[in-house]
Amino acid sequence: xxxxxxxxxxxxxxxxxxxxxxxxxxxxxxxxxxxxxxxxxxxxxxxxxxxxxxxxxxxxxxxxxxxxxxxxxxxxxxxxxxxxxxxxxxxxxxxxxxxxxxxxxxxxxxxxxxxxxxxxxxxxxxxxxxxxxxxxxxxxxxxxxxxxxxxxxxxxxxxxxxxxxxxxxxxxxxxxxxxxxxxxxxxxxxxxxxxxxxxxxxxxxxxxxxxxxxxxxxxxxxxxxxxxxxxxxxxxxxxxxxxxxxxxxxxxxxxxxxxxxxxxxxxxxxxxxxxxxxxxxxxxxxxxxxxxxxxxxxxxxxxxxxxxxxxxxxxxxx
Length: 318
Known about the structure:
Structural class: alpha/beta
Helix content: 25-40%
Number of domains: 2
Oligomer: single chain
CATH class of the largest domain: Alpha Beta
Order of helices and strands: EHEHEHEEHEEHEHHEHHHH
Distance between the termini: 50 Å
């Protein structure tokens, strides 16, 4: 129970910060510095260089303990994260992408909350601040997510938090399995769904991380993201994460996936593709019973469709 857990930072379990890196020598020093400068009793920073061809190896020469640098042959982001989990010497893992940053105090705050939760929790995510390539804060209209438990149903419907800042018990991966190495994107959402099938998941409504948007993020490939989302949701459907007999729920899931894909294609300058996916989304599921969980206004897909039509007619950028 919660009252049996350590109650002060000095007694908190150690944390291994896992940083997968591939050709991000420009941003990696900021990520590592944000991790290395944390004030926490016992932690390490494990950087997994996934076969970078830039100056990543040279950049990492400036860092000593508690930073460990490990080079491996290129195998993809999932494989790099799995390597970091295997190399981690502590009982808790916190993930940090090589182009993101941790805010000061995240380890103490995340662990303080985690140690106060009831038994059965295996994963926690947090809120984020968007920054540009130069580290300047970007505006966002994203409504705040409510703090509390997140179910597998929630994550199936839409992504709830970033891999950066996700805190997880290392033992969880032994039961839920590692990251799927066949996925080149959306691997984090797949992992969170599989964890939520066996453990409880918590979302902490605090902005404890900086997510960098710089135009070359691995998540910017709309076609790859869209196809991998279909794979991840299809696998969960076959596993029966939510019983397949719950027909309308699954229609909502796949309809919302089409909507998310439409956003990505329009953002990539392909409004025709975005408009088509919006129409497929509406035909798949004309309405959602609980629209509030999407943080979108009434008829939000129709509003987007009108916007895409205007983009097409005027030739405006999204």
